């Protein structure tokens, strides 16, 4: 069992580092959005490139942030019901939901690989004049984000199973 605990710990460290690094993008996004608003409403200057940059920055925040939220326990849970369960039942529910999360990740990755492959094969860019090319890179983050979420769900399943066995 010690090996599983070490694996869960290693995954937690990875997700924590990726999440902390990704969180800095939120500051950049806020600055870019503030600049866009100031330019648009203060000076009547608009930039398609800057608007698309917002989208490009939002993608890693979302796809990597979901794993970090799970690690930190900031995900959505129906605590109204959960609070009344025994500790052992809570751990069992956590194991089941982690497994379901992993299955969802596998499904999303399986479904998005052709989508991402097509985007990479044509070097997909923007359809907007003056926009940002390299949209295929942003789309490539989708399976990576769900792979990271799969790993964090695996870590949660391991930790919850160990807690279930000890309860």
Automatic annotation (TrEMBL):
It is found in: Cell inner membrane. Keywords: Cell inner membrane, Cell membrane, Membrane, Transmembrane, Transmembrane helix, Transport. The keyword Transmembrane helix applies. GO terms for molecular function: transmembrane transporter activity. It is a multi-pass membrane protein. One of its GO terms (cellular component) is plasma membrane. It comes from the Bacteria. Residues 29-159 form the Tripartite ATP-independent periplasmic transporters DctQ component domain. The chain crosses the membrane at residues 21-43, 55-71, 92-117, 137-158. Pfam families: DctQ (PF04290). The complex comprises the extracytoplasmic solute receptor protein and the two transmembrane proteins. Part of the tripartite ATP-independent periplasmic (TRAP) transport system. Belongs to the TRAP transporter small permease family. This is TRAP transporter small permease protein.
């Amino acid at each position: 069992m010690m090996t599983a605990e070490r694996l869960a710990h290693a995954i937690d460290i990875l997700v924590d580092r990726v999440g902390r690094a990704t969180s800095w993008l939120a500051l950049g996004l806020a600055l870019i959005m503030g600049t866009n608003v100031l330019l648009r409403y203060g000076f009547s200057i608009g930039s398609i490139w800057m608007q698309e940059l917002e989208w490009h920055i939002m993608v890693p925040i979302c796809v990597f942030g979901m794993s970090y939220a799970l690690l930190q326990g900031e995900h959505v849970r129906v605590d109204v019901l959960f609070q009344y369960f025994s500790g052992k039942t809570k751990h069992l529910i956590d194991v089941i939901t982690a497994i379901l999360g992993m299955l969802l990740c596998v499904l999303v990755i399986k479904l998005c690989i052709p989508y991402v492959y097509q985007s990479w094969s044509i070097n997909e860019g923007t359809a907007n004049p003056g926009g940002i090319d390299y949209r295929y890179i942003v789309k490539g983050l989708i399976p990576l984000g769900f792979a990271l979420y799969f790993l964090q769900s695996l870590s949660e399943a391991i930790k919850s199973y160990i807690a279930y066995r000890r309860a």
